[in-house]
Amino acid sequence: MNYTEEHEIINAKGIYYSYNGEYALKNISFSLGKEFMVIIGPNGSGKTTLIKLIMGLLKPNKGYIKIFGKEPEKVRDRIGYMPQKDYIARHFPIRVRDILLLGISNKKFIGKEEIEKAKNALEEVGLLNLWNKRFSHLSGGQQQRVIFARAIAKNPDMIIMDEPFNGVDLPSREKILSILRKKKRKITIITVLHNINPVAHDVDKVLLLNKEMIGFGSPKEVLNELNLQKAYGGTVSIVICKEGFCHPLIGDTHG
Ligand SMILES: Nc1ncnc2c1ncn2[C@@H]1O[C@H](COP(=O)(O)OP(=O)(O)O)[C@@H](O)[C@H]1O
Ligand SMILES: [Mg+2]
Predict the structure, then answer these.
(1) Distance between first and last Cα of the chain
(2) What's the pLDDT at 153?
């Protein structure tokens, strides 16, 4: 089946969400198949809020989100989630293996199968040698690769990431990207990014946000000067590379 024929893996319609009576998101609608979607928008534009709504960690005030035809919280075990870095307790005295195993299973007893899945994922990100190490002793890039390994360890049907490359060294970023490229169009991938350029050649859909949805569609449809100005204010330049992809010059300086 062509991936574009499966447009109902996520279906979000007319979502509103407010914190203390102030809207962080207004009237967001999109649907997605086995595609790679990037959510971009300025700081405070509601990107993390949208990710939490997709994960079922928050409930919309209005509208609905269905994933695989169900309520998001009912399908969480099919989703690999990588939260925004600031929200992970990086100094907690926990070992790398436990981070992975806690992500795979909420059962009390961990069996051979879980250990094998965890080891395979850690090997895939190139860090099997850190299995017994304390998480807090790892570099920022290594920590992020471990968190990514946790997200892919249960072989999810969907991966959701919130700014996975913030404060991450280039080799770690490329490692994560090479794994995502292998999974592309086999599963649904959603990521919030500050800077879309590292994946500009990979993405199928862009959701441009500033509380309201300024655009949703292919990069060519969404990434034009008018939309980027609506989202970010001021003028945003766009470079079209020789392969014909759009590269907006936002966020290149901070990561
Ligand atoms: N827990 C919260 N309580 C109150 N306001 C919040 C909370 N989380 C986020 N906000 C506000 O909602 C808006 C969107 O935040 P967020 O979704 O984190 O944006 P982004 O991820 O795009 O930076 C911001 O104005 C932020 O201050
Ligand atoms: Mg955020």
Answers:
(1) 36
(2) 95
CA atoms within 13 A on the CB side of 97: 11
Tell me if 253 CB under 6 Å of ligand 1: no
CA of 230 to the centre of ligand 1 (A): 19
Q: Is the CB of residue 146 less than 8 Å from the CB of residue 138?
A: yes
Q: Which residues touch 161 (CB under 8 Å, ≥6 apart)?
A: 81, 82, 148, 151, 189, 190, 191, 192
How confident is the model over 128-155, as a mean pLDDT? 94
The 10 Å Cβ neighbour count of residue 169 is: 15
pTM of the predicted model over 0.85 = yes
CA 83, chain centre distance (Å)? 8
201 C-alpha to ligand 2 centroid (Å): 23
Break the chain down into helix, strand, coil percent, rounded to 5. 35, 25, 35
Segments making up each domain of the chain, as ranges? 3-254
Cα–ligand 1 centroid distance for 185 (angstroms): 31
Three-state SS at 26: strand
Place of tokens 């936002």: 250
Query: How is residue 165 annotated by DSSP?
Result: T
Nearest residue (by CA) to ligand 1, atom 7, is 19
- CATH dotted code for 3-254: 3.40.50.300
